[in-house]
Amino acid sequence: MTGVDIVYDKIHFGHDQKWSGRLGPAEGSGQLVCVACVVEMIESEDIASVRKSFALSGISGVLKCSPGALRDLLSQDHRVSVRFTASLLGMLHTVVDQATLEKVDQVLVQLLLELQSELSYRLVLEEIHKQLNDQLNMKSFLPTFTFLGNLVEAVPNVAQSLVTQYVPLLEQLCSALLYPDEALKASVLHVWLKLFGTAGGLAAQSLPPAIRDRVCVLLLQTLANAGSNQLINTCVDLLWLLLQIQEAVSVLMSLPGDLIPYHENQNLRTNNEQNLSQNQEQQSPDQSPLPLILKKLLMSGDETLQTTSAKCIAAVLVHSPSQCSPPFITADVPEFLFDRLAGSSSSGLLWSAYSCLLLLTYNPLFFSQCHSVYGIESLVRSLNEALLLTNLDVPIQGLLLLTEILERQPPSERLFPGASGFAAVAEAVSAGVSFSCLKVATQAASAASALFRLNHQSRPVLYGKIEGLIEAITKRFPELPLPSHPHRGISRNLTRSGKDSQASRAEGFLLQALICFQAACRLAEECASEPVLKENTFTAPSKQSQSQDSLESLCKCLLHCCDSVWIPTVIKMCQEAPHAQILQQFYSILTYQFTLVPSLIPVFTNKL
After folding, report:
1. Which residue in 154, 212, 299, 313 has a CA-CA distance of 20 to 30 Å to 36?
2. pLDDT value at residue 24
3. For this chain's UniProt record, which GO biological process terms are given (predicted)?
4. Among 40-49, 82-91, 417-426, which is the least confidently predicted range?
């Protein structure tokens, strides 16, 4: 080779000039390329690897800078194109240098994209199939599998052809996962990852069900015993794609536990190994191993794996919460999800864990095994972190989870054994109500409504915390963008323009605030009817009426807020755009005021 020209002087003189061309951005410039020289250099065992790599770099540059030029040279004789492609495929088995292998992979993909020939694609797939049939050393196929995955990603048509016309090759890809080398397994899974992920998963829809089911089994076997980070991450990425397919979820969740040998490995060991092994011993042979495998990933020290594991759990539960929740709850997965909440400030992990736990709360087993009692402290701690994040969807999801737990917790199982637990939740909800975003504040107000249930109150009842929450909600009213008289028509249109409009969010917050206020009034009435709740037994009787943490103080706060802020706000809103739900809650609240503080009712009545 001379200069930057891609020719080999020792053999170039014997080649027909039609296989040479000066390929570049303009006529008369660029590199002199001899396809025949390149092919012979590739195939020769006497040519140094560095020289082959240099030639491949030149070809790669031509393919990138002069689209169509190399294709025109090769189109003169199809046999040369076939030989060039076959020679490059052969290099994937003969070259040892990693940098050169990467260059071969790159040039092969570029070349096939340049040729845009179904014949070339079939040649590659058939040649790989033939090589696998004749293979003597499976480990030498690692570069070939890596290339095949890259080709499938770059050319979606190859993925479609592979799943519809080359089922024997797919079976060979499955069998390759039984080979003990982890690097080879990772390269094979790379192919499956691209097959299931390319073009939005369209190719996967054409995959024969028997092959898909076999991939599910082999994937769980591989993941259960994976030791290297590369293999673990590739397995988890493929698992995530499979869990988007209903049929694959059914297979994965129905596999018997004794089908998957489950061994410890160095990379995923944690301080919770003893608990994990105990759960494995308790697992019935007919139960799916998937919950335990995903729990193992939750226990790892890798936050990315923890996040992906939580996403996978949510993907399973979404398909069939009623059928899939019990195995995860029985495996104590909620416990480890709550543990992840307590120790993370990652928006991705928090969101994923919230989503999983939210789906699990729909099953009564979640509460009967006391997961909510165990995890409430971690949930509160995570909410305080979530409110500091820029991604507002995270605190909304966390507050939604808190709301569901508060609403679904059985009255017979106390969520807050002591006053400190209730106080911590009340403070977190108050922070949410005071948050600048109305969507977050609205969900926090919904959580407050559930918190005001009688069965959640501590002994003694923390009336001061309840009062603080009501005052926090009331302070939001002056900033609400309520309708104004000069723009009556415009305001009405704005209010009804859509749920994402500012006025619509304000209306939603007001409605939820009224529901919360009504819940506080109902709680006050219920406490007044029970002497043990009406008075704080730790406060001297002579100081009960002056205490800031008394039922009487709460009732006066409710009446004052209703009189000074809530009534004017609701009237102003409904004058412009009457809202049946808002008015219904409003009248109910007014009714409560006549019973909460009887001594002040004459003054309140006259004012009304």
Report:
1. 154
2. 61
3. meiosis I
4. 40-49
Q: Report the range of poorest mean pLDDT among 31-35, 82-86, 100-104, 168-172.
A: 31-35
In the 3-class helix/strand/coil scheme, how is 372-436 assigned residue by residue?
HHHHHHHHHHHHHHHCCCCCCHHHHHHHHHHHHHHHHCCCCCCCCCCHHHHHHHHHHHHHHHCCC
Can you tell me the distance from the alpha carbon of 59 to that of 40, in angstroms, rounded to the nearest whole number?
Answer: 14
pTM value?
Answer: 0.85
3-state helix, strand, coil in the chain (%, to 5): 75, 0, 25
| Burial annotation 522-545 (CB, 10 A radius, 16+ → b, else e) | bbbeebbeeeebebbeeeeeeebe
Nearest Cα to 499, choosing from 490, 491, 508?
Answer: 508
Mean pLDDT of 377-398: 95
C-alpha pair distances (Å), 397 with each of 108, 391, 405, 504: 46, 11, 12, 20
Q: Which two tokens stand for residue 582?
A: 């808002």
- The CA distances from residue 204 to 164, 192, 247, 327, 462, in Å, are 10, 9, 12, 27, 57
Evaluate whether 32 touches 42 at the Cβ level (below 8 Å): no
Q: What angle do CA 503, 506, 507 make, to 5 degrees?
A: 90
**Could you tell me which residues come within 8 angstroms of residue 108 by beta carbon, excluding any fewer than 6 positions away?**
85, 88, 89, 92, 124, 147, 151
Token output for 40: 């012979």
Task: Give 541's pLDDT tier (boundaries 50, 70, 90).
Answer: low
Ranges of each domain in the chain: 1-116, 472-608
| Tokens standing for residue 420 | 């400190």
